[in-house]
Design a protein that fits this description.
heterodimer; A: 317 residues; alpha+beta; seven-stranded antiparallel beta sheet; four-stranded antiparallel beta sheet; 8 helices; B: 851 residues; eight-stranded mixed beta sheet; 30 helices
Chain lengths: 317, 851
Amino acid sequence: MIYRVRHLTHYEYDAPVTLCYNLAYMLPRDTKYQKVLKSDLVIKPFSTTGKQRTDFYGNTVYYFTVEEPHKELSIEVISEIQIEDFKFATEHDLNLDFGTTCGEVLRTIQQSTDPEMLKAREFCLNSNMIKTAPALRDYALTSFNSSRPFLSAVRELTHRIFTDFTYDPDSTGIATPLAEVLRKKRGVCQDFAHLAIGCLRSLGFPARYISGYLETMPPPGKEKLVGSDASHAWFAVYSPGEGWFEFDPTNDNMPAEHHITTAWGRDYSDVSPLKGVFFDGGKSHKLKVAVDVNQVDRAAFQAHVQTLLQSQSQSQS
Amino acid sequence: MNNPETKLAEALSYPRSADGFDEAYGDKSELQNHWRYLLDGIQSLGANSINERQLKAERILRDDGATYRSASIKSRAWQLDPVPIILESEEWGRIESGLQERSEILDLLLKDLYGDREVIRHGVLPPELVYSNPGFLRQCQGIVTPGEHHLILSACDMVRASDGSLCVIGDRTQAPSGAGYALENRTVMSRVLPSLFRDSHVHRLSLFFQSLRLKLQSLASEITSDQPRVVILTPGSYNETYFEHTYLANYLGYPLVQGSDLQVKNGYLWMKSLGGLERVDVVLRRVDDYFCDPVELKSDSHLGVPGLLEVVRSGRVVMANPLGSGVIENPALMRYMPQISQHFLGREPRLPSVKSYWCGDPDDYEYVVDNLDKLVIKSCHGRTSRRSLFAAELDEKARENLLWRIKQTPLAFMAQEYIKPSSTPSWDGHQLCPRPAVLRSFSVASQSSYAILPGGLTRVGSTKDVLNVSNQVGAISKDTWILASEPEKQISLRDAQPWQSQVQSQSRASFPCRVVENLYWMGRYAERAEAGLRLLRTVFVQLNSTYQMPLQTQRTLLRSVTELTGTYPGFINATDDELKHPEDELLAVVIDEDKNGSIMSNLTALLNCTDQVREMLSADTQRVINDMRDELAVLPKVLDSAGLNSAPEEALDPLVTSLLALSGLWQESMVRGLGWRFMDMGRRVEKALQSARLLRSSLVPVLPEHEQFRVLESVLLSAETLITYRRRYQSGNELARGLELLLYDQTNPRSVFYQIKLLSQHISELPSANTGSGLSEEDRLLLEATTAIQLSRPEVLADTASKDGLRTELDQLLLRVQALLQSASSQISNKYFDHVKAHQQLVSNEWDEEL
């Protein structure tokens, strides 16, 4: 499956900005399941310096400066990404009721000298925006016991977050403390991913944050609106010997071929799409973001919609 | 038997302390040979002489502006014990190679942590030790420092244990401080104990700084073939070791810059100087790495330079130490030093570290919790707190709190066995007594290895049994003498050849615009304070004279105090009763620091400017400034005790004298470079403005003839022109003659015209002055001001009065001149000074507050 993602970010300032320095995590990375075929980033006005590199976690990061006065700044990223066929199409392809148990995961992760596991231990630790806490631990605990298969427990946690929490774009800012999310039981994809990671780390499991995109479907019979997609966030856990597995608590599923990964890190702050500083520019600015995710292969896309509709009607019947 | 002579000799002979290891005795009961000469020397000097020399040392330190902690008025003078600590050459040789080896190990570790992290993959270090440490900057992964070493500078704190062996208790690899203080200590010691110092054959310190220069130079030559530029980056004058930054900048001959003096442009790092942007190749940083770049590191930091890290990454500037080096400071690493050394060198380190525990290790954690009272607890996250906690010293509540914090975040704590430091002879004002000592040594990368400062910064506790010996808790420093086994050739920094050419090349330039701007304001504040002081003196004299002044005259004089100093509302709308009792307001105009425009606030602003340009000021200037600081500190008390009724003007005299001394020094001993020119421009602007202001506030209201003369006399007196006036004019229109002297005169430095002329002259000599396309804006403004003055007539100004008793022509003219001067000044500042604006964050990151 090949996707084409267009991600447009547009800033309009009160007064001209004379100088800005920025860091963008908007160019998708390669992963085990996806290959970036093409990825272009266009900045207006013309950027003085622009440099792409790979960061500590293997993500693609783009640094740029604009050193002439500008009242508007736009960053448009167009990428084509191939999701490998061997990434399961739906989570039903996986049987989560077998495999490493929670107890084994905890034991192995602390005792193994395997470099991969030593590396994964970084993701058990507190990070800028996610701190382990007894409340998180308590919330998670019902789904975990040492003999239960780890992935099945995580899947249940994902499901519980989906059911217990309300998706509410108005409820949170960028850095809502987890305690508040837990108390208000509201948030957005980012908060749910943070929450799940916080729960898992509070129990001693390695979990990481993934930012990316999700292909959304228009209501049956309607044209898809331009710019209606959004960037998305979910998480992954590490199971010793089995590798990393992704879960999406906002949609109560395991990301399959409709999730496109941009970057991962310990939490949002490692991979925030755009950050930086600027000089002048007045007191405030307006921000517009538009995202479009489309399948490149039209025919395959149609067929896919059909199967989805069928499976929906089946599950409803 | 009790004769004072014997008693004195006893006091001066240093007794062996009852317990522990003593530097002078070792573990024997006899003094060690290498201490004899010094202790005999001290004994023969006698207590009085030692105290005198200590006073002299204090004076020199004060004159050099040596302080620790903030550079504000309340900053603390640097403490130096007149008795040095001595190590003999052979032992030092062993220590030196141990230190070299330690720096090598830390360097390898630094490279590895930001490279392949073999130490983690091979199980040498637990991953959590590195990954949980906020000093580990993932953004610095893969950054390479040119040359053999990544770690350029490091420092190491050591104590001698009771068995006589030296043991490391801490490493500094971020931006180690102290080497400059060690150098200053040495300079002072060689002056207060010259013969003892000379005859002791002490290893010199200058070679170390030469190595540092050579290293920075070679780093620069790796990235540029041009004349390289090295700068020292300081967090600013509020930093606790700012003195050292200015001291090193002067000693090494590099510009001292703050983050806002630098800018990233076109992919390079530049210094904003008066002549434009100048490329920077190497930054010797005294700002912690995490604060160095708000784009990639701490986003709300204003101490760094946006975009710096990317310039470093692309190899266009070298940081010393490299960004990220703070991770090596984590004291928990000491727990693993033997393994780290094994991993890199295949052997245990020669210089042992104190027995350490890391609470992230389950066994260590158990031990620490069970043995808390025996241990020194340190945070692994240096950024939040570097202070060591001695659990045994804590009260029950603090102890519980510490335990709770360790349990909450075990990864963030480590513990060390407490080593009772060896004692060393120290002077307490009466006698030599044993004090616990900690030595900080310094190393700098040099060719294939590290050069070690022969000596270092020794600190001793303020009492015999103090546990924590640190400058933050009042320790006293000592010079550290390494005795040379053979006489050393004398080399001072100036004699060293290789960078001679660089010294010259850097002198063409230059300093950041911030320095120039501060010089300009230094000039302005000095004049502003002086004008205020002069008028206040005159007013005090008039108020206290036997002659009873009519209320109207008093009103005019007091109002001019308010107008001149700008301390509104002051006396502007004062009631008659308030005018009769002006004492409180006048006192506030002098000493109330929070009152904008008061003498105190102007002088404080002046002192703040001098802090900013400290590296530009001569030793004499520094001395006058120190005097002024002291006078300022006691002024409120002096004025309070004297009261305003008994010649308060005399209390102001010392300040006027200091200000005169300053302007004399600036006039006589400052090189006529750009710095001087801007400083002098500041003075001219302010002088002209103050004169105009004074004339307007005092002479515009029409008074009865006799009273008018009285006010004029006060004005002339405070402008030091009364004698000239009397000599020149015997009779005639008094006011018109007065105005001639104070407004028009081309020879009287107190006249407005004279000052504006000087200012214009300065402007015409600035490098970016006009290139033939007519007058610049500031020229135009000043020309308009001088022309307006020249076209007016003194008699008309003096005699044209409105019905409500105001000299309207004079009023209009002076108002206009003031406005023109203000515009000229802002024109100058817009044109030449960099207006540092604070940057904004694209997205405000609340999360990194917590780091």
